[in-house]
């Protein structure tokens, strides 16, 4: 039966493993006071892509937190094991040193008990000299007392060693139990994350996204749990395996932006009968340089554009015309999918065709 301290440790860790994800409520959109054209209420999300993306991201976050908790627990218990080992070694050294210091006293007392009328003390115990006899008795009393102290000290040290050994064993047992519990939790979360990503990939394929397009394999590029991998690369130098294709051939974005855009495009198709037309999406550094020199004043400095992060698109099919029905519908509904028309694009420079994905806004959906 585990001790109360061990049970407390297990309970504490069990509570810590319960990952509670609080999803922020969306802020009220601060829309511009312009005419809007909508078709009967809020647009739907075909394929439930937003919900699937959110579930995948939650699973990924919970998996990361559980893994971090396991690593932290392992580090803490490993440190405690080392400290206890040091203490036990110190007590063993102290016991040996004390035994060595008291050994002559112990041996002398033992010899007196075995031969109380002989040895070096015999002349003093014959009774011929009262003073010497009293002194000898006093010495014997001192020696016996000293031996008792040796035994008491040794007993205390032994008890301390036993207690420390028990604590070390308890910590090791708790460590194994916690690691097993966290291991099961991590494996469960990993399987759940993989299941959600597979469902999301199937939904994208069903909506016309060729996830294996461009040399990608297994649909990993459209996995929103791998978005953090894209931040490891410079603007405009993202590899193919962190970019997810769009429904329009040759266009691609970062996974989370792509998933949100496909959902927005499907809602747009229900309103206008066709998907959103895209002229440009992710731009490589070389591509951004070409646009920058070809259209000065209408393109960001290479290495500074949201196109190079895979989070911006340039649109056509009517959206590029300011205050067209398509532009107005997108302005009214894009935020519901994490996409915005940035403030600067209304005037400086004026780019009604340019739209950007906002991860912070999407996280509130």
Question: If you had to describe this structure to a student in words, what would you say it looks like?
Answer:
- It comes from Sphaerisporangium rufum.
- Keywords: Signal.
- InterPro entries: DD-CPase-like (IPR052179), VanY-like_core_dom (IPR003709), Zn_M74/Hedgehog-like (IPR009045).
- This is D-alanyl-D-alanine carboxypeptidase-like core domain-containing protein.
- One of its GO terms (biological process) is proteolysis.
- The protein is mainly α and 365 residues long.
- It folds into two domains: 46-206, Helix Hairpins; 220-363, Muramoyl-pentapeptide Carboxypeptidase, domain 2.
- Helix content is 57%, strand content 6%.
- The protein contains nine helices and six strands.
- The chain has a four-stranded antiparallel β-sheet with strand order 3-4-6-5.
- The radius of gyration is 38 Å and the shape is rod-shaped.
- The protein starts with a helix and ends with a helix.
- The relative contact order is 0.12.
Q: Pick out the low-confidence regions.
A: 4-40
Residues in helix, %: 55-70%
The count of domains is 2
Number of helices: 9
Q: How large is the radius of gyration?
A: 38 Å
DSSP strand content: 5-15%
The coarse overall form would be: rod-shaped
Strand order of the largest sheet: 3-4-6-5
CATH architecture of the largest domain: Orthogonal Bundle
CATH topology grouping of the largest domain = Helix Hairpins
Largest sheet: 4 strands, antiparallel
* Element-by-element helix/strand order: HHHHHEEHEHEHEEH
Please report the total strand number as a whole number. Answer: 6
User: How much is the average pLDDT?
Assistant: 79
Structural class given helices, strands, pairing? mainly alpha
> For this structure, what is the CATH class of the largest domain?
Mainly Alpha
Oligomer: single chain
């Amino acid at each position: 039966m585990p001790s109360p301290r061990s049970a407390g440790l297990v309970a504490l860790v069990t509570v810590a493993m319960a990952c509670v994800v609080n999803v922020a409520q969306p802020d009220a959109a601060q829309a511009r006071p312009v005419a809007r054209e909508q078709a009967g209420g809020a647009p739907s999300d075909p394929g439930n892509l937003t919900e699937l993306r959110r579930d995948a991201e939650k699973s990924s976050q919970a998996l990361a937190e559980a893994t971090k908790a396991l690593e932290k627990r392992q580090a803490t218990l490993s440190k405690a094991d080392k400290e206890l080992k040091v203490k036990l070694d110190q007590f063993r050294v102290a016991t040996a040193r004390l035994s060595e210091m008291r050994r002559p006293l112990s041996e002398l007392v033992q010899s007196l008990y075995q031969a109380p009328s002989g040895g070096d003390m015999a002349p003093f115990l014959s009774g011929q000299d009262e003073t010497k006899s009293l002194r000898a008795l006093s010495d014997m009393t001192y020696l016996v007392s000293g031996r008792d102290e040796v035994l008491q000290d040794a007993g205390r040290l032994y008890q301390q060693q036993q207690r420390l050994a028990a604590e070390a064993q308890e910590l090791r047992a708790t460590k194994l139990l916690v690691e097993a519990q966290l291991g099961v939790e991590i494996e469960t979360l990993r399987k759940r994350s993989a299941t959600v990503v597979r469902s999301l990939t199937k939904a994208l394929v069903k909506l016309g996204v060729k996830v294996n397009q461009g040399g990608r394999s297994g649909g990993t590029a459209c996995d929103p749990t791998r978005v953090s991998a894209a931040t490891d690369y410079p603007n405009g130098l993202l590899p193919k395996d962190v970019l997810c294709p769009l429904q329009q051939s040759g266009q691609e974005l970062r996974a989370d932006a792509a998933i949100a855009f496909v959902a927005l495009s499907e809602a747009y198709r229900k309103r206008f009968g066709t998907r959103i037309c895209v002229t440009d999406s992710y731009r490589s550094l070389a591509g951004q340089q070409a646009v920058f020199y070809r259209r000065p004043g209408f393109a960001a400095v290479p290495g500074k554009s949201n196109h190079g992060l895979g989070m911006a698109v340039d649109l056509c099919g009517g959206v590029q015309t300011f205050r067209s029905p398509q532009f107005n519908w997108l302005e009214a509904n894009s935020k519901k999918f994490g996409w915005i028309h940035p403030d600067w694009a209304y005037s400086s420079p004026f780019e009604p065709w340019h739209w950007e994905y906002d991860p912070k806004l999407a996280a509130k959906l």
